[in-house]
Write a structure and sequence with these properties.
Elements lengths: L1 H27 L4 E3 L18 E7 L7 H15 L5 E8 L6 H11 L5 E6 L1 H9 L12 E8 L5 E2 L1 E4 L3 E3 L2 E2 L3 H31 L1
Parallel strand pairs: 2-3, 3-4
Antiparallel strand pairs: 1-6, 2-5, 5-6, 5-9, 7-8
Helix pairs in contact: 2-5
Length: about 210
């Protein structure tokens, strides 16, 4: 009996574990693409680009001071966890008229963490609205060009999200006013997309060696 138990532990359990994790990779290895070929944010602000970056994209609107709590939530729950990745960035879109509100927010963010991967794209109201519409989501901007939702954009400028979310079905964005949503959903999805790129990089490196 003891020998049988030892054999199960040594041989059967590792096999079961392998099959379980292999199945997980197949089912959860990629974050679904919901909108392809999102335009580059450079059409709003030429100093910022989405190309070649995993981007958390948000729209703070004209009242940046009033919405800084959203940025703090995002900073603490998402940015601080993933900012070590070189290809990761935050891009917050703000109307040109609110330019003077950005620096105070950046100073406060810098007190919480290294803010070098926080970027702010400034543009006209018309350019911001036109860009947002190209995301093709079920979310709208309010009159101040604000939404509490942020979006995951991959290196090829595709909007990634969930097509089988337990609460919303298709989930385009993540609500920055909800710490629970950032913790329980967005963090997992950012992990998935970063793992996806890491696996692709390892495969490419292995292929070069062959």
């Amino acid at each position: 009996m003891k020998k049988t138990f030892v054999l199960v532990v040594l041989f059967i359990f590792p096999l079961v574990a392998y099959l379980f994790f292999a199945s997980g990779v197949n089912n959860f290895g990629k974050l679904p693409t919901l909108t392809e070929n999102v335009p580059d944010i450079s059409q709003v602000d030429s100093s910022v680009t989405l190309d070649g970056k995993i981007t958390i994209l948000g729209f703070l609107g004209s009242d940046v001071e009033g919405k800084k709590g959203n940025a703090f939530n995002l900073n603490q729950k998402i940015y601080k966890r993933f900012s070590e990745f070189q290809d990761f960035q935050m891009v917050m879109v703000v109307p040109e008229e609110s330019r003077n509100q950005i620096e105070p927010l950046r100073e406060e963010l810098s007190e919480l963490s290294d803010d070098q991967r926080w970027n702010f794209a400034l543009g006209s109201n018309e350019a911001i609205l036109a860009f947002f519409q190209e995301l093709k989501t079920d979310i709208t901007l309010d009159a101040d060009l604000y939404t509490p939702y942020v979006f995951i954009i991959d290196k090829d400028r595709n909007l990634r999200g969930r097509n089988d979310d337990e609460d919303e079905g298709v989930k385009f964005g993540f609500n920055t006013t909800s710490v629970a949503e950032l913790n329980n959903k967005m963090e997992d999805d950012v992990k998935i997309i970063l793992a996806e790129y890491r696996l692709a990089l390892k495969k490419n490196n292995a292929d070069r060696i062959k």
